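Example record for the data management plan.
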Amino acid sequence: MRNAMERVKRKEMMIRKRGYDTRSKKRYLSNLPPELKREILLRLQSKCVARLILVSRDWPSIVRDKGFIDSYLNRSSSSTGPRLLFTVCNPEKQFFLSCPQDDPSSDHHRVSIAPPNPNPDHRYKFSPPVRGLICCQNQSRVLIGNPSTGQFVTLPRVKTWRKGIFSFFGYDPVNDVYKVLCMTVIHAPPDRESQLLSEEHQIITLGAKKAAWRMIKCQHPHRPPCRTKGLCMNGFIYYFAWIHEKQGCLISFDLSSEEFNVIKLPEDVRLKEACEVVNYGGKIALATALVFRGKLDLLVLQDAIKQEWLKVPVVVPEELLGNLFWFKGGTCDNELVFAPYESLTPSFTPSSSFFFVCYNPKDKTSKKVLIEGLGDQCSSEIEAFLNYTESPSLLTNRE
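Corresponding structural encoding:
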């Protein structure tokens, strides 16, 4: 009995000593100069930044500063390089997985989507990540998440009773805010689709004390295709759409002025199918989303104001011939990336590993890259996003 009491006392002393050490460390970190605190945070991984801000009240103010976030994103992109971000959705689980773009077999970071989708029959739609954040939309339910820290916030429901909702996510550098643009398109038979236009255009600004959807006017009637995702670049959201029945165009949305503009395609271009907007060498480009034959034609936007385009023909690698692939865009190393269209790749052996093909058009070399840990691509809906950069941005109920 005496020995047991002595063991309890020793344990209590260890707990007290450990608590004292923890308090001492917190006090020491709190008393560091602001410049040193900022440098420490810049050198940490984003998930570690999210933990360290609990040490003191002034640490979150550093992380929320626009200058710090810009420096963090620039340093992460230059020192560690961009990452690949995958979204995985199936009836059992929904999660993000990121890995280095130059070495996808290492440093996997996996985060579950929370709160999970309440209706597995309607999976989340994801907008391309912007400055490390991503938008998840399921009908009128919209989430904003930080895949690197595992933080998510739920936005107010979109103001509509319709189910055909399109969402686009972007960052306004003028006002230093993120915004989500939504619109609706009524579902209709194929013979009536060309007569339908987007309606109920509305936008919400993250970070406001009382964030709410606001209706805005669109002076250019248009209809985005069902799978369009858009792309945010330099304060504008770009996405492909139809105008005047089957005439394709590029829509640009100014996130600062909240105005729509139409960028017409070259007169000799007549698109019969939907295109996807991709990042090609730091410029906006339009490409046929699905690649089946051995040629891919890119339309690269040279000047949005003058509406000047450059046609870039691309010969795809031989291993893609006869298969159905998504063209995902270009990497920072000017490699073109193609991802398989679900299970419609007959010449490839079925595998539980997701893969994509990188093609270097200069030396005409290609490589097949396997990604472990994503599950069976036949039973899961997997999307890949290039040039993802981890962000320390904090998400709270106000954002």
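Summary line stored alongside the record: The chain is about 15% helix and 35% strand.
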